[in-house]
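Re: that backbone. Tokens:
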């Protein structure tokens, strides 16, 4: 509720905040869809573990289209809300987004890669495929 009150004080700040959220959402989707596309292109069908449904041969084109759509959403979310912006009305969310990405990569390089061991699997995915 407090974030909604930002619009009363500054419309430009509210627009920057919402565009930052949109770009972060699309970026997280791009990362997960890219990993899935890589897995689909480099792993045989026999070694894939699917969830409750699968798209079959239509899966790869749908993932590619979703990546294109998400990339367009990220690019357009950083544009200013009105033509001829001033320093006060400019959408500065790209600066915040880039800063967070740079800090995250530095943190991963310095600390995260040394600590993270990956997900803990309770079952072997290959055993689940063999049971089918």
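Recovered sequence:
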């Amino acid at each position: 509720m407090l974030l909604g009150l930002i619009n009363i004080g500054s419309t430009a700040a509210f627009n920057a905040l919402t565009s930052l959220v949109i770009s972060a959402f699309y970026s997280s989707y791009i990362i997960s869809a890219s990993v899935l596309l890589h897995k689909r292109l480099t792993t045989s069908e026999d070694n894939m573990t699917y969830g409750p449904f699968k798209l079959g041969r239509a899966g790869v084109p749908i993932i590619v289209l979703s990546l294109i759509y998400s990339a367009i959403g990220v690019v357009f979310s950083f544009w200013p809300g009105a033509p001829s912006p001033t320093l006060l009305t400019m959408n500065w969310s790209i600066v915040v987004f880039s800063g967070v990405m740079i800090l995250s990569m530095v943190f991963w390089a310095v600390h995260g890669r040394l600590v993270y061991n990956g997900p803990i699997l309770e079952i072997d995915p290959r055993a689940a495929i063999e049971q089918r």
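The mean pLDDT is 87. The first helix runs from residue 6 to 9.
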